[in-house]
């Protein structure tokens, strides 16, 4: 259909999100399985990584398609929790948070390894401290093996990503400021009735939404590029660990947000379903 | 009460907003009245301006008080329309948009005056073009009389305000990135169950909300300072025109957002009340 009605678009946006979250939960299980099975076949792991990234690309494509007319929904989606919306940057996570996640995983694993070494002052402990782990089957463990070269590349990517984020933030700021200018501000001033319809205002607001849709698409592109580049810097096992951590963080934040909201409602008798949507084992 | 329950806080936040919007509608009428009555008594106008600014200060104070524990609500409030939330910067309008509004008003009035001059090549037209209007009782007209000195000061304020906005945006970006770090990201990674409760995560999320509350308070302070400084640069009649334009823009945007949402729901049989909340004549 060339021109789906607006109600269809709103429904499509929401369905698209729920479908995406279901897929996230499924892929989380797949990634975990691949690691705990101790799959050493790099080709298989690589295939899984490509699938995961391809799915993100498809999702971004759908969002771009669906936001073209009604982009406002994406900047504080009703399907998100308050907590998630307070964390939102251009309709999603900050691309730079992917990199922070790499640092967090790397730092924690190095700490863990050091703690193990100090606890067991024997050869096993030493070999662990030197990264000579026998099977790499502990979740996340691969991240402590980041080489100085990898860390350098990750840092370069961080700086570049923050710059790109700032560019998009600036564009959005200008668009936001523009709404306090002609024709919107003036129409508001000269109308006798508040909210009186006005063709020029409607067209200016449509244009604002279209411009914000363009920025949303750019932001999704930046998220995709950053994700792809992080994965390219990592080894395949590290990439699987990293993608798993990302999916778990996203799904957990949604659930923690729900729990916090539930707790607030509970105390005034509102209730709701405290059971998680995506609580995979 | 030292520790009102969270449900009370949520209700208070919403009530506080509705009370504020009612007050906006009332003050809009008062400001309009003061202008159309052609009140030349600067003291009376000045008193009205002080009242309006004082009320904004009170509102900011209440928000600061009420956001201390649950600030997430303010970053994409459920009481706003999607359109308003897509325009939000730190729980409100961009302080720099106050300045854009001054420029918009000034530019449109100058255009109007020039058009009048070109239309009536007589003495009346000439005197209007020279700003020698007899009564200044046309809404907004005072804004075309901004002196070069006033415009210079407004421009200085614009630059300073954008710098302050950027500082706060940067602080919020850092806080957002931090949630992809320890302890939140790691707890998410090592939990077997998605969304499993965790004292350390809860405390980190509480800290995040408290930090965002601090930024919200800073942003409200910046909005207040900018508003106050714009008013100080303007003459009293200009200030009344400007405050009236600001209130009309805020109230209109809320109504236009409602109308756009209604139109989307209408097409799928949802309905709702298309009548405005604050449609003052």
Automatic annotation (TrEMBL), chains A, B:
Superkingdom classification of source: Eukaryota
- The segment(s) forming the DOG1 domain are 10-263
Q: Which InterPro entries match?
A: Seed_Dev/Stress_Resp_Reg, TGA_domain
Protein name in UniProt = DOG1 domain-containing protein
